[in-house]
Amino acid sequence: MSLVLVGAFLLAGADSLQGPVLGVDGARFTLDGRPAFLLGCSYYGALGVEDETVIARDLGDLATLGFNWIRVWVTWNAFENNVTAVAPDGAARPPYLDRLKRLCHMAGEHGMVVDVTVTRGDAPDFPTNYEQHSAVMITLARELLPFRNVYFDVGNERNVGDARYVPMEEVGRLIRAIKTIDPKRLCTASQGGDISREEVIAYINEGEVDFLTPHRPRGADSPAQTAEKTREYLDIMKEARRIVPVHYQEPFRRGYGDYPPKAEDFLTDLSQAREGGAAGWCFHNGSVRGDDGNPEQRPRRSFDMRPAEGRLFDQIDDVEQEFLRRLKESSQP
Fold it and tell me: Quick one: CA dihedral 155, 133, 162, 121, positive or negative?
C-alpha cells in the first residue's frame, strides 16, 4: 500500500471503518472473515429516497427475512428522475452522493453488503468513454473508502453492444485504478447473458475481476439450469487455476418480457444457485415492462421509490410476497 493510502487509512482511523468486511476466499464470499452466502435484493433507485425512515423500514424487513446485501445504482435516471450520484466528470452530485453514503452506513448497521453499480450510457447523464468512466470510479473509490461492506460493479452488462459496452481491457484498467486507491475493494463487471468459456478466462485474467456476475437468460427453463451452469463456471476456473465466486446479482424478475416467474421459480433458482456452489443470489425486481396497457410501468418496485410510488415493500406484488413468505418459512429451524 502506498504512503498516501496508509495516510488515508490512518486519518480515517480504524474506528471509522464501517460495515461488515466483505472478502473472498476461493469460490466463497466472507463477512468479517467467516464464509457467507450473499442473499440479496435489487434496490436500484434508492438514491431517490429522501426520508431515511423509508430506507430503515425496507432494510429492517430485508434483514428479518435473512437478506444480507442490496444492489443500488450510482448512475440511475428513470422515469424523468435523475438520481445519479457522480457526474461523468467525476464531480459529486448532491444530495445523491450523500444519500449513497447514508445507504452504505445504514446497510452496514444491518450487517449488509452494498453492490454499488455503475453503467455507461448516453450523454450527458452517464459516462460515455473510458476517461469519464474512470473519473466516476475514482471518485467513488475515494468517497466510499471507509465502507468495507461495499463492492463495485464497474460496468453493468458490459458486453452488450450498445451504450453500455465496456471493452474487457478497460474493465481491467478501471479495476486497477480503483485498487490504486483502495487495494482491498472487491470489483466485478457484469455480463448480460451466460458467459462463454473464453469470456470466463478473460474476466478473471484480463478483466481482473474478483468474482463473476452473469445475468442469466430470463426464460422458463432458466431456474432449473442454474446449478449446472454454476458448476460449469467453476470447472472452467479450476482449469484456469484461478477460482473466484460466482454471484447471481440479476436473475429474472416479474414484469419483464413474456415470462412471469412464480414464487416457485424464485425458490428453485435460489436453491439451484446454492446447490451448484454459487456465492450469492438476488431477488431481482423492477418496473413492469412490455405491457401496452400499463404505460406508466407500475408497479415500479426498486426502480422508483419516490413518495408517490412508495417504498419497495409497498410495491412488490402478491407473487413476490408469496416468495418472501416461503423463503422465511424455509429458513426457520
Answer: positive
| Residue 155 region by backbone torsions, left for phi larger than 0, else alpha for psi between -120 and 50, else beta | beta
Interior/surface letters 224-258, b for 16+ CB within 10 angstroms, e for the rest: ebbbebbebbbebbeeeeebbbbbbbbbbbbbbee
pLDDT digits (tens, 9 = 90+) for 59-107: 999 999 999 999 999 999 999 999 999 999 999 999 999 999 999 999 9
The more confident residue out of 118 and 258 is 118
Q: Hey, what domains does the chain have and what are their CATH numbers?
A: 37-330 (3.20.20.80)
* Listed residue (261, 281, 263) closest to 271, CA to CA: 281
User: Partners of 163 in the beta sheet?
Assistant: none
Closest by alpha carbon to 214, among 241, 238, 233, 242? 233
- In whole angstroms, give the CA distance from residue 241 to residue 38: 24
